[in-house]
């Protein structure tokens, strides 16, 4: 009798069935693994991803010393050291430096590692930063593997997800020397994983952890706050659904408050400049997003533009010529595929199903581009300020690949993917450590075309290879070097050992033995000796 009383009337069941508001029912497909089953868990389940992670880590240990120091690294470290002194020594310098509004979320932990190992030589410090940054990036790619495994229940697709995330040529090189854009991208991947787990398990602790991830992302770059409205929309939908079905709304409200509390707590703790006046300094950083003090020219498709007057197609063009071809086409196909499916059955994507994650990925792929355009934010150095949209794009690409690979086409798709991985890997090995100048074949590779039409090695890290070459070929005790840009030269002198530094003398005179020239059409170019 009790069971009959608890069942909703047939009329209500029919109404819910038509609207799609009834509780989603998970169905097992043949050969699929459902979260929570014994087959889904266990360390053996994750061995392919673990092997990929270990492979990436071993590669990093062998190559991290090859990368030079980027233009911005001393500034980024300054944010970390002044934040450290503010926290532990009460030094107020943090409030007066020019770059005080840059996020310290990743820089402060790097200083902790520096102090832990008592590193004092600049070469050791920056090489440590390169290694730690790449390892954190690889860990986030492993989180991407876990996310893909949960979404698609296919090892091939999950492993492909790791490869797409970890071995994009430009992003891979940046993962060593870019401690703001790449850690930000990395935490986005972690947030996506926690979002999928939180809404699937629907337990308070996961919503708190999701809030922590979003707060930490925002402590690295303030643009991370865009995650809040995207994820909050899901809470609103779940709240309205609960009210419609006359279910308890308190659990939804509780989970939302835990999410917001986790966000605020981690943001506050990880960004020391906020401690004295959180609202003021957070608003200051947002203002900076649209008024970055960088008055220069950028080179795009053979034309020069002022950094604050870029054409609307700046980001789309850079994006379309710097993503490996198959991944680009797959991502665009996934984007269109999901949009069409959403139009046909919107509730399937809005309710608490696996499909809602793909709606989040579309929002996090398109939303930031729209926001940057609306805020008139200065965007330069290819599309590195928006690298964090790449994980969303990868998930869209995996969606399309997984759909196309179903049935008899799986072998063909696998072969195409392996070919793309092979071509990309060939480039990365051949041009190591300059993977950051990768262009796909949708743009001409005729001699001198790329150099004359697009900004290339804009951070000056290649000065290190120039210095190494001179020290290896010139056996003079003292070598005089001049340059039209001394900052990257001084930075990369610090990447040499003591013997190399002692042999090189910088000079501004014409008696220099070598001149380091950084192309200065009105844009950055490839560093050269």
Please describe the topology of this protein:
Elements: H1 2-6, H2 10-19, H3 47-63, H4 73-89, H5 107-116, H6 122-152, H7 155-166, H8 169-177, H9 181-201, H10 204-220, H11 227-244, H12 250-270, H13 278-290, E1 297-300, E2 303-306, H14 314-322, H15 325-344, H16 346-350, H17 355-375, H18 390-404, H19 410-430, H20 449-453, H21 463-473, E3 479-483, H22 486-493, H23 498-503, E4 504-506, E5 514-518, E6 527-528
Parallel strand pairs: 3-4, 3-5
Antiparallel strand pairs: 1-2, 5-6
In short:
With 529 residues, the chain is mainly alpha-helical. Helices cover 61% and strands 4% of the residues. The protein has helices at 2-6, 10-19, 47-63, 73-89, 107-116, 122-152, 155-166, 169-177, 181-201, 204-220, 227-244, 250-270, 278-290, 314-322, 325-344, 346-350, 355-375, 390-404, 410-430, 449-453, 463-473, 486-493, 498-503; strands at 297-300, 303-306, 479-483, 504-506, 514-518, 527-528.
Kindly describe this structure.
With 529 residues, the protein is mostly helical. The chain folds into 2 domains: 33-430, no CATH class; 463-528, no CATH class. It is 61% helix and 4% strand. Helix 4 packs across helix 5, helix 6 packs parallel to helix 9 and helix 17 packs antiparallel against helix 18 (390-404). The longest helix has 31 residues, at 122-152. It is globular, with a radius of gyration of 25 Å. It starts with a helix and ends with a strand.
Major sheet: size, sense and barrel closure? Answer: 4 strands, mixed
Rounded to the nearest angstrom, the radius of gyration is 25 Å
Q: Low-confidence parts lasting 5 or more residues at pLDDT below 50?
A: 1-7, 12-20, 23-40, 520-529
- As an assembly, this protein is single chain
Structural class: mainly alpha
Numbering strands along the chain, what is their spatial order in the largest sheet? 4-3-5-6
Termini Cα gap: 87 Å
> What level of helicity do the residues show?
55-70%
Question: What is the count of distinct domains?
Answer: 2
Helical element count? 23
The chain-level mean pLDDT equals 87
Order of helices and strands: HHHHHHHHHHHHHEEHHHHHHHHEHHEEE
Percentage of residues in strands: under 5%
Overall shape:
globular
């Amino acid at each position: 009798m009790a069971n009959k009383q608890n069942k909703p009337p047939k009329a209500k069941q029919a109404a819910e069935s038509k609207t799609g508001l009834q509780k989603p029912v998970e169905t097992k497909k043949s050969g699929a693994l459902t979260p929570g089953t014994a087959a889904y868990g266990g360390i053996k389940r994750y061995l392919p991803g673990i092997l990929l992670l270990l492979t990436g880590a071993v590669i990093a240990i062998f190559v991290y010393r090859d990368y030079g120091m980027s233009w911005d690294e001393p500034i980024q470290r300054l944010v970390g050291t002044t934040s450290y002194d503010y926290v532990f020594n009460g030094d107020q310098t943090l409030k007066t430096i020019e770059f005080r509004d840059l996020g310290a979320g990743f820089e402060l932990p790097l200083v902790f590692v520096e102090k832990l190992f008592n590193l004092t030589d600049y070469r050791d410090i920056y090489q440590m930063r390169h290694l730690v940054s790449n390892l954190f990036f690889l860990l986030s790619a492993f989180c991407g593997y876990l996310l893909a495994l949960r979404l698609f229940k296919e090892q091939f697709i999950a492993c492909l997800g790791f490869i797409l995330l970890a071995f994009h040529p430009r992003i891979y090189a940046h993962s060593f020397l870019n401690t703001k854009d790449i850690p930000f991208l990395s935490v986005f991947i972690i947030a996506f994983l926690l979002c999928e787990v939180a809404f699937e398990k629907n337990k308070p602790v996961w919503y708190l952890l999701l809030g922590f991830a979003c707060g930490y992302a925002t402590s690295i770059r303030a643009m991370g706050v865009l995650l809040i409205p995207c994820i909050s929309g899901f809470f609103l939908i779940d709240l309205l659904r609960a009210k419609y079905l006359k279910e308890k709304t308190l659990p939804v409200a509780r989970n939302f408050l835990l999410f917001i509390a986790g966000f605020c707590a981690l943001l506050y703790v990880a960004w020391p400049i906020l401690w004295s006046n959180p609202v003021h300094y957070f608003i200051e950083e947002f203002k900076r997003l649209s008024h970055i003090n960088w008055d220069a020219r950028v080179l795009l498709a053979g034309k020069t533009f002022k950094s604050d007057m870029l054409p609307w197609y700046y980001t789309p063009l850079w994006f379309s010529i710097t993503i490996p071809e198959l991944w680009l086409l797959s991502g665009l196909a996934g984007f269109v595929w999901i949009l069409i499916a959403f139009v046909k059955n919107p509730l399937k994507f809005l309710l608490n199903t696996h499909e809602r994650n793909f709606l989040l990925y579309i929002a996090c792929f398109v939303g930031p581009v729209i926001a940057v355009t609306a805020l008139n934010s200065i965007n330069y150095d290819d599309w590195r300020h928006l690298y964090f949209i790449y994980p969303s794009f990868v998930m869209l690409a995996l969606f399309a690949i997984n759909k196309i690979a179903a049935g008899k086409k799986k072998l063909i798709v696998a072969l195409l993917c392996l070919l793309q991985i092979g071509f990309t890997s060939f480039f990365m090995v051949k041009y190591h450590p300059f993977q950051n100048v990768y262009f796909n074949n949708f743009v001409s590779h005729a001699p001198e075309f790329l150099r004359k039409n697009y900004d290339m090695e804009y951070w000056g890290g290649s000065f290190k290879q120039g210095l190494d070459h001179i020290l290896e070929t010139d056996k003079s005790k003292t070598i005089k070097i001049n340059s039209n840009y001394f900052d990257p030269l001084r930075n990369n002198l610090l990447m040499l050992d003591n013997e190399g530094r002692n042999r090189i003398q910088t000079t501004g005179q014409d008696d220099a033995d070598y001149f380091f020239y950084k192309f200065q059409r009105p844009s950055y170019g490839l560093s050269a000796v």
